[in-house]
């Protein structure tokens, strides 16, 4: 009888950990996207404008895309979120939106250098790919948020989309 009660308690704790862990796992994944995006921003800002210096930027851009895809996978594998978990994710999304805005600004500021090297079209393609992946990630996470909070979640994700749109607009006008 004691063993049966302990097993019930242990299975209940395991389930509680799993549910709580889903929100935490998504936050960790978003924090990883944020970290990779900050690194991309630093590489663009520190770039001297030479062709050789684009390789670390392109490589880091791929790391950003990979982290976005990983975050999408994490969210897909997660159970629906509680309201408390959704609020924790909101903080991570706001932080990420600020980072994405700074990174897109840095990329826009480097547009002329990319254009001079005739690689603006590569940057545009990367931006479009990252935006699609970011939209997918946002949609998957929003679907996990309680229905009553989904409109708020969409509003929190909107600045990320707007930042991408701004950079894509600039690079779309390249020759």
UniProtKB/TrEMBL annotation:
UniProt keyword annotations, A-Z: Signal
InterPro entries cross-referenced by the UniProt entry: Cell_wall_mannoprotein_1
Pfam family, any one: HsbA
Highest rank taxon of the organism: Eukaryota
Signal peptide positions (record): 1-16
Protein name (database record): Cell wall galactomannoprotein
